[in-house]
Amino acid sequence: MNQLQLPRRHFLIAAGSAGMATALSDTLNIPSAFAQEPKPLPPYAAWKNADAMIVHSNNTLETKREFFGTSGITPEDELYIRNNVPAPDESIIADRDAWEVEIEGVRNPGKKTLADLKKLGLETTAMVLQCSGNGRGFHKHKASGTPWTVGAAGNVIWSGVPLREVVKAMGGLADGRNFITGTGGEELPKNIDPKTIMVERSVPISALDDALLAWEVNGKPISLAHGGPLRLVFPGYYGVNNVKYIKKLAFTEKESDATIQRTGYRVRPPGQKGSPDQPSMWEMTVKSWVTHPLKETDQGPVLIYGVAFGGNRSVKSVAVSTDDGNTWQEARLVGPDLGKYAWRTFVLAADLKPGTHIIASRATDVAGNTQPEEFAENERGYGHNGWRAHAVAVTVV
Ligand SMILES: Nc1nc2c(c(=O)[nH]1)N[C@H]1C(S)=C(S)[C@@H](COP(=O)(O)O)O[C@H]1N2
Ligand SMILES: [Mo]
Fold first, then answer.
1. Residue 99 to residues 93, 184, 240, 248, 334: CA-CA distances in angstroms?
2. Alpha carbon distances (Å) from 30 to 3, 5, 7, 40, 394
C-alpha cells in the first residue's frame, strides 16, 4: 500500500505502535477518493525541498523521517518549521544589517543594529533545534496540537555573537536579573490583546553562557522562515525558546507574563490547565530514533542508523534492538563530534532474517540518563522520549 495515501492519523498509529503496524497496513484499504492530497509548501517556504516535508499547515512543516540522512547536519531546506503566529513579511530581510534589536536589563540599554552586533564577537554552535511537541503523535491520549512524530527537529550550525559579549559591551547586567526574555518581531493583529498571542519567551539567566544572537545558519544568512535576519538561540533548550526575528531582548527579574510563557509550554498531567508553577519547556532531554531502515528491507546484512542527542548535555552511547527490546547491542557513533548540543549519527551492522522486526534505539547521556521505555503522558504532549513509541516495524523480505 502506498503510505503517502494514508491519512496522517493512520500513518502515525502504524509507525507509532510498531506491533500494530502490519495488522493495520494489511487491513486498511482506503479508497483514493478519501485519501489526503499532500498540501503544497506555503509561499514563504517555497524554497524547501517539497519531497522531504510533511506540510501539516502553513505554519507547521515536518521533516520526513527517511530524510534525516547520515552526515549529522540538517540542510535548511529540509528543516522543520513551526510558527505560533504567521511569519513576518519578506521585507524584513531586504536590508539585514539595518535590523534593530532593543536591549534592556543591562547597565547601558539601547538599540543595536545587526551591523553593530557583527562587530562585537563571533561564535558558531551546532545544536539540535527541536519543537517541544516533537513526538506528540505518539501520545495515546491524543494531545491537542500538531501530531509531529520525529520530524519537528533538526541539527543545524548557527553563527552569531555570543550574548555574553553583547552584555559586556553594554556595561554588564543590571542588578537582580534572573531571566533572559526574547520577543519575536511579528506584527500582531490590532484587535486582540498582544499578550495572548505574542511570541515572548523567558529562560533562566544560566542560559546566558552558551546563547547566541545568530545571523547565519549552516553557512548562509538565516532565511525568513527560520528567523532571519536575527535569531536568539539557546543551545540545549526546546525550540520555542529560540525566538525568531528577535526585536527585543530583555534581562528581566521575572518571567514574561505573555500567555506563551505563563500558561503555555507547561508540563502537567492530562486534563489539567497550564499554570506558572508547572515546569516550563526549557532544557531538552536525551533522545534518539532510527532513520533507516523504516519499512522494508532485504534479508542479510543491513546498516541500521539514526540520530541521537543528549539534550542539554552530550550523548554518551546508543543501544539498538532488533527484537522489540529483548536484546540490545551498542551502536557506533559516526562522524565528527560537533559538541554537546549537536546530535550524532549512530550505526549498527545487523543481519536480519525474513519476517517483521521491531527495531528500537535507546540513547544514554553523559550524566547516565537513558531514554525510558514508556513516557508518562502529559496534557499537551510535550517532550516524548520513550524508546518504544519511537521504534519501527520493519518487514524483511
Ligand atoms: N518569533 C517567533 N519565534 C519562534 C516561534 C514563533 O512562532 N515566532 N516559534 C517557536 C517554536 S514553537 C519553535 S519549535 C521554533 C521553530 O523553529 P523553526 O521554525 O526555525 O524550525 O521556533 C520558535 N521561535
Ligand atoms: Mo515548538
1. 8, 13, 21, 11, 39
2. 11, 8, 9, 22, 22
Using CA positions, which residue lies closest to atom 10 of ligand 1?
240
Nearest atom within ligand 1 for CA of residue 226: 20
Q: How far is CA 332 from CA 243, 337, 346, 371, in A?
A: 34, 12, 5, 17
| Distance between Cα 236 and ligand 1 center (Å) | 15
Residue 249 C-alpha cell reads as 531582548
CB atoms within 10 A of CB 69: 16
**Rg of the Cα trace of the chain?**
21
Q: How far is the CA of 200 from the centre of ligand 1 (A)?
A: 11
Full pLDDT tens readout for the chain, 397 residues: 333 333 333 333 333 333 333 333 333 444 444 556 889 999 999 999 999 999 999 999 999 999 999 999 999 999 999 999 999 999 999 999 999 999 999 999 999 999 999 999 999 999 999 999 999 999 988 899 999 999 999 999 999 999 999 999 999 999 999 999 999 999 999 999 999 999 999 999 999 999 999 999 999 999 999 999 999 999 999 999 999 999 999 999 999 999 999 999 999 999 999 999 999 999 999 999 999 999 999 999 999 999 999 999 999 999 999 999 999 999 999 999 999 999 999 999 999 999 999 999 999 999 999 999 999 999 999 999 999 999 999 999 9
Answer whether 349's CB lies under 8 Å from 333's CB: no
* Grid coordinates belonging to 159: 553563527
Q: From the CA of 363, how far away is ligand 2's center (Å)?
A: 22
- Cα distances from 261 to residues 165, 166, 196, 309, 318, in angstroms, run 26, 24, 10, 25, 33
Q: Of all residues in the chain, what percent are helix, strand and coil, respectively (each to 5)?
A: 20, 30, 50
Q: How far apart are CA 392 and CA 372, in angstroms?
A: 16
Residues contacting ligand 1 via CB (< 6 Å): 79-85, 129, 131, 184, 186, 199, 226-227, 239-240, 242-245
Tell me if the bond preceding 293 is cis, omega within 30° of 0.
yes
